[in-house]
Amino acid sequence: MVEEYTALLYCPKLQVDKAYSRAAYVPVFWKKLMNITGMSKQWITARIKQKGECKCIPWKNLRDLILAHPDGKKKVDVFALSIYGLVIFPRALGHVDEAVSDLFDRLEKGVTPVPAILAEAFRSLNAYR
């Protein structure tokens, strides 16, 4: 299954032997969002919400940022973060949570998301069953 997901997600440049697992020390959520979006601490902290046990940022704020951001690369990064948060790892409806930003942040280091995506697919199927 891992090989099929790798082919489906087209992850050839990622290191297959470096699977994603959440680190023991995770940088603060707003710092990761600053890195991904290129926005200020004030902009980000004003939009972070608490949903259950995790911190999230509403999708509508990310959508507005995608439409208005002057940096093309940051637009793509925010759009990809949104897809990961809303489609692949949905936790809070209409929000992107801090776990997704951790995974997305580590993709730049060549870590493959395939095992995490596969595990999430099995978790979701089990929940529906």
Key descriptive features of the protein:
129 residues; alpha+beta; three-stranded antiparallel sheet; 7 helices; DUF7745 domain-containing protein
What portion of residues is helical? 55-70%
Task: Report Rg.
Answer: 15 Å
Provide the number of structural domains: 1
Please provide the ordered H/E string of secondary-structure elements: HEHHEEHHEHEH
Average pLDDT rating: 76
Strand content is 5-15%
**Which regions have little confidence, pLDDT < 50, spanning 5+ residues?**
none
Major sheet strand order? 2-3-4
How many E strands? Answer: 5
Shape: globular
**Structural class computed from helices and strand pairing:** alpha+beta
Tally of individual helices: 7
Distance between the termini: 20 Å
- Biggest beta-sheet profile: 3 strands, antiparallel
Domain DUF7745: 2-127
InterPro entries: DUF7745 (IPR056647)
Protein name: DUF7745 domain-containing protein
